[in-house]
Amino acid sequence: MTRKWVRGVALAAAMVTSLGIAGCASGDTEQSAATQTTEAEVFSWWTEGSEKAGLDALVAVFNKQHPNVQFVNATVAGGAGSNATQVLAERLSEYDPPDSFQSHAGAAVVDYVKRGQIEDLSSLYDEWGLRDVFPADLISQLTVRDKIYSIPANIHRANMVWINPDVLKTAGLDPKATYSTTADWIKALEAIKKTGKTPLALGQSWTQVQLLETTLLADLGVKGYNGLWDGTTNWGGSQVRASLQNFQKLLELSNSNRDELEWPQALALLKDGKAGFNVMGDWAAAELENDGAKLGSDVLYSPVPGTAGVFDYLADSFTLPVGAPHPEGSKAWLETVGSLDGQVAFNKAKGSIPARTDADPSEFSEYQQGAIKDFKDNTIVSSLAHGAAAAPTELDAITAAVADFATQKTDLAAFQKALVAAAKG
Predict the structure, then answer these.
(1) Helices vs. strands in the chain: H and E counts, helices first
(2) pLDDT digits (tens, 9 = 90+) for 98-111
């Protein structure tokens, strides 16, 4: 009997039983749920820096809340989750799921739902009162075919730029200046280039996709950007082409070794005074502070030029796979992820903000307090690079197009044509 066939039998059996129901022995052998021991194998891509610190903090709360459940860390490093997603796809295809796995909220879970690989968690939202503490807009983002398939641990903002004030001063620029358009920002970057410093520090391919999304958001505005995902904005149109020209200029003003760097390494170029700007989500805040930088003095921050008043959102969330070997362990983990204590501990360490609205802002850093306010007051849009705006197949095609354009130096017309094809699926 092959491993795949055995796991298939286990999967079929798991699909027969509902969430939270386990077989119990009768008589003297029966144990209460409080004394039974099990495990929870949790699959994520949080392996270093502030991400690992956040996971460690969340696990500490989990161990306190569920002392009879052994946490099994199944992390896979690299690519902002792209490497982990590939490994996870192999495991799911072999009917060998973990007990829970990380996914970005929104469109990222659609393919799992279509393939019948994750459970509906709507009943847990009711059981734990999560509909009352998560914003209605977030609940809407999480809902697929009238059901909810993941529990978010946090909210992140993708459209942030980090600034080294000393590098800007050397270039004769005001570090606190704001740029209302991408074109104005490009002029500032060109001034930095003349000093011999790197104008814009970038990392590997997904960070370049994130730069593309923020450029499109700045140039097209909220309505135009949202139209890319609902079909009302033409990927082949002149407005998109003009934005892609700006994106091309931004790439030209970035470091030549960008494809060799993980995002913390690119951020370090900024912190160490080798670069003027870095576009990165607000997980950079905790990374910088953990590395000894003082936000507001050593490093400044603002929305990406042209995107003030817009919160480009993503959320890290966790699922319950169909056929999870330890469903009680899965449920315990998900309960901690959604709990107030879990979200506070996790987000204080990771630099994001809680998805829950009942957390006390005063427990968080100055940056996070501002993010909590902005998430409440700003216009919310969904991140492309982090799976909230586009389904995984479309995102994969866009990422491939960006890689060809940035690395293989395909021309602008071919790049736009590839994006049109990606949108059509």
Answers:
(1) 18, 14
(2) 999 999 888 889 88
Q: What pLDDT, on a 0 to 100 scale, did the predictor assign at position 48?
A: 84
Query: What's residue 80's pLDDT?
Result: 60
Looking up residue 358, the CATH number of its domain turns out to be 3.40.190.10
Distance from C-alpha of 5 to C-alpha of 16, rounded to nearest angstrom: 17
- For 372-403, the pLDDT digits (tens) are 999 888 988 999 999 899 988 899 999 999 99
Q: Establish if 24 belongs to a structural domain.
A: no
pTM over 0.85: no
- CB–CB of 281/270 below 8 Å? no
Specify the pairing of strand 38-44 against strand 69-75: parallel
117 belongs to a structural domain: yes
Phi-psi region of 27 (alpha: psi -120 to 50; beta: other; left: phi over 0): left
User: Both 329 and 412 in a single domain?
Assistant: no
More confidently predicted of 125 and 409 = 125
Amino acid at 11: L
Surface-to-core class of residue 147, CB atoms within 10 Å of its CB (0-12 exposed, 13-18 middle, 19+ buried):
middle
- Pick the closest to residue 255 from 198, 312, 303, 297 (CA basis): 198
Q: Which amino acid is at 413?
A: A
Token pair 């992140």 is found at 156
Phi and psi, residue 119, nearest 5°: -85, 155
Strand ranges, E, within 184-266: 198-201
Rounded CA separation 209/389 (Å): 13
Confidence category of residue 79, pLDDT binned at 50, 70, 90: low
What residues make up the domain containing 362? 38-156+314-382
What CA–CA distance (Å, rounded) separates 416 from 13? 47
Between these two residues, 401 and 24, which has the higher pLDDT value?
401
CA neighbor of 416 nearest in space, from 249, 246, 236: 236
Q: What is the largest CA-CA distance in the chain?
A: 81
Cα torsion 109, 110, 112, 115 to 10°: value is 170
Which residue type sits at 280? M
Most confident of 26-35, 71-80, 270-279, 402-411: 270-279
Contacts of 174 (CB under 8 A, 6+ apart): 168
Task: Pull the structure tokens for residue 103.
Answer: 């996914």
Rounded to 10 degrees, the C-alpha dihedral 300/303/308/310 comes to -140
Looking at the domain assignment, is residue 29 inside a domain?
no
